[in-house]
Amino acid sequence: MIMTRLQKNNVTKQNNKRRVVMIGHKTIPSRQGGVEIVVDRLSTGLAADGYEVWAYNRGRAENAEDCHNGVRIRHIPAPASSGLNAFVYACLATIRATIAGFDVYHYHAEGPCVMLWLPAFVRRRSRIIVTIHGLDWQRAKWGRFASLVIRTGEKQAVRHADEIIVLSRNVQRYFTEIYGRKTVYVPNGVDRPEPVSPALITERFGLSGNDYVLFVARIVPEKGLHYLIEAFKKIKTDKKLVIAGGSGQADDYMRRITEMASGDDRIILTGFVEGRTLAELYSNAYLYVCPSDVEGMSLSLLEAASYGNCCLISDIPENAEVMEDHSVTFLHGDSEDLRSKLEALIESPGQVASLRSSTADFICSKYDWNRMIADTGALYGNPPE
């Protein structure tokens, strides 16, 4: 017997599970970006706690799953064009979610919130939660239309969301000062990893350990990689610069980075890496550099610190808040100051070792996935029975 949508919804409600939908990420499981990692960990944790969790993926990836660690996956079609991709996805995902009916609509990032008015208009007792992963309109890759959508989404979140989650105190101040809107500070988490010896990175990239400076992120303008390459090329050192990350749809910037790196055989572009290869890169770096102009809360920085790396970071509030006095900072956007700090650390292995000694304990006690999942679930209302 074929069940109607209404009958299916009635059966679900009888199961006494709070139904949650995640909208705004690209796809899970994946490491395409920080949003995807957060949605994956949050969804999986909530499902383990008894919630019925749906994740509305953008498009259909190869070997796409319909269920992942107890999380139900729905694939929402979206055009290949980067300019329209996110907007069309937000519209279709919101319409489908509103028809299906959920107890909690959890939006991630500002852009998808452009459709927040719809569940706000038709809802009965549902909750609308928004996580602001960063002030996306500040990112250089967006064109005029995309920036308009993002700004509109931000205003829709302020107007319609029951709760807005922010990842940094700086963004929390922004919403207070610009909109007079209360937000809830719920930072991301990090696991305590087990460092691993170099093997794959030796085979693939000729790295033996402690012989390279590491950058891990999507290769997009706001991550500040151009400052790092410019600074590194001025330093006389046998150490290599390892750049691990994909283009993040910023093809012009990727070409610029490739050109900047050409002619210096110390610079290694690995492309996107994950799993054992990424773990080896984190485990065996001499130091890690986060030169961002804009961040929400860098998961790569959290991960690098969790492995006990000495971290050299730009002095933007979102980075400084994470590391406090357990890192070395440079003036963001200043490649000469970055060169000076980087050169000093390369010539001071004692200082690097000193910073390494306490970094992992500090960061893993400060940030915890279980605490993040519990704090987020508390904003959903009554827990599942």
Protein architecture, described:
The chain has 385 residues and is an alpha/beta fold. It is 44% helix and 16% strand. It has helices at 5-14, 34-48, 82-100, 117-122, 144-160, 169-179, 200-205, 225-232, 251-261, 275-284, 299-306, 317-323, 335-346, 349-366, 369-378; strands spanning 19-23, 52-58, 67-68, 71-76, 104-108, 127-132, 163-166, 184-185, 212-216, 240-244, 267-271, 287-290, 311-314, 328-330. The strands form two sheets. It has an eight-stranded mixed sheet with strand order 3-4-2-1-5-6-7-8, with helices on both faces. A six-stranded parallel sheet has the order 11-10-9-12-13-14, sandwiched between helices. Helix 9 links the parallel strand 10 (240-244) and strand 11 (267-271). The longest helix is centred in the N-terminal third of the chain and has 19 residues, at 82-100. The protein is globular and about 65 Å long. The model is unreliable at 1-14 (pLDDT under 50).
Question: Compute the gyration radius: what is it?
Answer: 21 Å
Shape: globular
Low-confidence stretches: 1-14
| Arithmetic mean of pLDDT | 90
The level of helicity is 40-55%
Distance between the termini: 29 Å
Structural class: alpha/beta
List SSEs in N-to-C order.
Answer: HEHEEEHEHEHEHEHEHEHEHEHEHEHHH
Instruction: Kindly report the spatial arrangement of strands forming the biggest sheet.
Output: 3-4-2-1-5-6-7-8
Strand count, sense and barrel status of the largest sheet are: 8 strands, mixed
Q: How many DSSP H or I helices?
A: 15
* Beta strand count: 14
- Taken as a percent bin, the fraction of beta residues is 15-25%
